[in-house]
Amino acid sequence: MSTPILRRNTLQRQVILEELRRLHSHPTAPELYRIVRTRLPRISLGTVYRNLELLGQIGLVRRLELGGGETRFDGDPSQHDHVRCIRCAEVTDIRQPPGLRVEPAFGTLSGYRILGHRLEYYGICPDCQQREDRRGDGS
Amino acid sequence: MSTPILRRNTLQRQVILEELRRLHSHPTAPELYRIVRTRLPRISLGTVYRNLELLGQIGLVRRLELGGGETRFDGDPSQHDHVRCIRCAEVTDIRQPPGLRVEPAFGTLSGYRILGHRLEYYGICPDCQQREDRRGDGS
DNA sequence: GTGTATGCAAAGCCTTTGCAGCATG
DNA sequence: CATGCTGCAAAGGCTTTGCATACAC
B69 and B10 share a domain? Predict the structure, then answer.
């Protein structure tokens, strides 16, 4: 119940959170590791994982378990959904969910006690659309 | 455009599809491998992966990229959603989506050309609810 | 017989974890 | 100074892939 507290405010933790917040690319842990390492060359991948885990528990970071078999991280923990490009795998935030009612009255569903949902759209991002239009499609 | 054809109807392929259809547990490839191996002791994990990939392309099998960083497979390729138990990680089909409108008019969304969506609920399954009620909650 | 599919094994990722030393509060 | 955190490295799991062989057609 009691919210876990950030025990120590290490430089590594600060930088990880800073970079994750600045990025809007929803990186995986290894991706974020490569970026953070430009500022902290001696940081380890394990530290990145441990901090993302901890920041996720606190609620400062959101763990995204979307498609692709990877776990991505989002520096914006507020409620929002995502679109993923099936061509370039880019993941983009959707700011205003277009007035849909996904949650089934928070009751039961097959006997489950429903606590929430995860919604992900997929499609083709603007860049990839251009790229394909330019080539006249054709697969 | 033309649907890829099942080139050869090998015993391995048959058994993989059979077992996946019988199971309602949405197994990962390694899990399915362990099961199939009871019938075909000499089958290899690589074969399981290759067949799941192929069966997925044909549309006989559905690839589920839900949470948990694993890829799971569903022997029922029809359109339906899933609930995942946050306690025991079980994944269950939802047969009748409760009349919701998820797709945003199939137009653009942040410039994306939307092709579809993936919706996953999470909550607590009946068994885990019982287990927790019995213990009077606590943690 | 031809060419696809298989079994085997290696390799590449992602992720977690044990441990000794460091540094935060 | 106590101990949470870090860096390092090993280990485990999932997934893909190259190759020679086997087998479906």
Answer: yes
**Number of folded domains in chain B?**
2
Domain membership of residue B60 as a residue range: 1-75
Q: Is the pTM of this model over 0.85?
A: no
A58-101 pLDDT, tens digit each: 889 998 877 666 789 999 988 888 888 877 778 888 865 555 66
pLDDT in tens, A39-56: 999 999 999 999 999 999
Which nucleotide has the least CA–C1' distance to A7? D4
Q: Which residues pair with A27 in a beta bridge?
A: none
Torsion angle defined by CA atoms of residues A54, A92, A27 and A103, in that order, rounded to the nearest 10 degrees: 30
The 3 state secondary structure assigned to B31-80 is HHHHHHCCCCCCCCHHHHHHHHHHHHHHCCCEEECCCCCCCEEECCCCCC
Strand B112-124 with B81-85, pairing: parallel
Please indicate, yes or no, whether residues A84 and A136 belong to a single structural domain of this protein.
yes
Instruction: Work out if A45's Cβ lies within 7 angstroms of strand C.
Output: yes
Higher pLDDT, A96 or A14: A14
Residue B26: CATH number of its domain: 1.10.10.10
What is residue A87's predicted lDDT score, i.e. its pLDDT? 76
Nucleotide nearest to A12 (CA to C1'): D6
Does residue A56 share a domain with residue A86?
no
Instruction: Tell which residue, B36, B95, B22, has the closest CA to residue A109.
Output: B95
Cβ contact, residue pair A129, B113, below 8 Å: yes
Res B80: pLDDT: 84
Contacts of strand D, CB cut-off 7 Å? A 6-8, 10, 12-13, 40, 42-47, 50-51, 54, 69; B 8-11, 28-31, 45-46, 49-50, 53, 70-71
**Which residues of chain B carry a pLDDT beneath 50?**
1-4, 105-106, 138-139
Q: Which of B75, B92, B109 is the last residue of a domain?
A: B75
Last residue of a domain, one of B46, B75, B104: B75
**Same domain, residue pair B45 and B62:** yes
